[in-house]
Amino acid sequence: MSELNLPILDLSLLDQGEEAAESFRDQLRAATHDVGFFYLTGTGGTPELEERLLRTAHAFFALPEEDKLSIENVSSPHFRGYTRVGGERTQGKVDWREQIDIGPERAAITDPEAPDYTRLIGPNLWPEALPELKDIAQEWQDHLTGVARKLLRAWALALGAPEDYFDSHFGDPATLLKIVRYPGKEDPTPQQGVGAHKDSGVLTLLWVEPGKGGLQVRRDGQWVDAPPVPGAFVVNIGEMLEYATDGYLIATDHRVISPKYPDERISVPFFFNPALDRSLPLIELPAELAAQARGVTQDPTNPIYAAYGENALKSRLRAHPDVAERWHADLLAARASS
Fold first, then answer.
1. What is the model's pLDDT at position 1?
2. Beta-sheet pairing, 254-257 with 215-219
3. Residue 107: CB partners within 8 Å, gap ≥ 6?
4. 266-285: pLDDT as tens digits
């Protein structure tokens, strides 16, 4: 452990010979068994790419309101586009942030017999006033997709599975990129930038504007700060990886506290998850690891499903009630009656 509240791992160790790679896999397994969160350096990203991302994010949120609202997510049945401040909820409470959601660029599914979760598939919404946003978003996603695949192969070996275990079960990944701005609040007490939650998928890679705190992780029953580390991502696992390891790896509660006015904070999480129609089967852990598996704690009000698409749809319907009510009232009614 470093002096920080989370471990720091160096991904470049995987390219420095088998001894270094084995050391990384051991650290990866320990960090996600004990904490579920860590910092990741050595990903091959450049300061220039990070600066372009930050500059473009600031440019988007500085657009006139009418330009941002031209791609508001209530116009998208696929939950894409811009969410105004207060437009998303966690655990039923309003999050004090604005953001744009970007997923895989695909045509909408029109088959009425298709599973409910296919409603998440569709095109993105891009602001005409900032065409460079699409380019930097694609470049960022391409880079982090490579990082995510490398991590998952390392996890597979660390858990006693074949290196391609996750590749073989993922299909075409259902990624989600959020570019988020947390505006400052004047309230003297901490405010909910985003409420306490666990991610519903497999893997999250988070980039935070340098020097901007606010992220907190629950460790041993206490909230601890996870400030940004230069050149590093904050990485955490989601409920599906906990599910696949029968609780040997742990998904951890985290939250964001709003900055104090006039400060603000840019945050860019990237969620790397299986195809919507895929399920992650339980990994057959080696005996010494299986003995340390804690099982999966199921919250009856927020169940974990084996199929990723069911988890993703559940999360989006809860987080964006305005989009759900406009486009998916039938799903809300069906869930209310079940």
1. 34
2. antiparallel
3. 121, 122, 123
4. 999 999 999 999 988 889 99
Q: Output b/e per residue, 223-233; b: 16+ Cβ within 10 A.
A: beebbbbeebb
Instruction: Tell me the DSSP string of 278-312.
Output: -B-PPP---HHHHTT------BTTBPPPSBHHHHH
For residue 116, the surrounding DSSP H or E stretch is: none
**Residue 25 to residue 16: CA distance in whole angstroms:** 13
Look up residue 273 and give its two tokens: 């998850």
Helix axis angle, 329-337 to 308-319, nearest 10°: 100
- Domain-wise residue ranges, the chain: 8-337
- How does DSSP classify residue 107? P
∠ CA 248-35-173, nearest 5°, is 70
CB 180 within 8 A of CB 209: no
Residue 133 in contact with residue 61, Cβ under 8 Å?
no
CATH of 8-337, one of 1.10.630.10, 2.60.300.12, 2.60.120.330, 2.30.110.10: 2.60.120.330
The angle that helices 132-158 and 18-34 make with each other, rounded to 10 degrees, is 100
Q: If you average pLDDT over residues 95-119, what whole number do you get?
A: 95
Cα–Cα dist 279/240, whole Å: 9
Q: Where are the beta strands (DSSP E) in 98-226?
A: 98-102, 176-183, 192-197, 203-208, 215-219, 222-225
| Residue-averaged pLDDT of the chain | 92
Beta bridge partners of 266: 181
Non-local (6+) Cβ contacts of 179 within 8 A are: 57, 60, 99, 100, 102, 137, 266, 268
Confidence class for position 88, pLDDT limits 50, 70, 90: confident
Whether 189 has a pLDDT exceeding 80, the answer reads no
Instruction: Look at strands 98-102 and 81-83 and give their pairing.
Output: antiparallel
266: its two tokens = 């840019």
Interaxial angle between packed helices 132-158 and 47-61, expressed in degrees from 0 to 180 and rounded to the nearest 10: 130
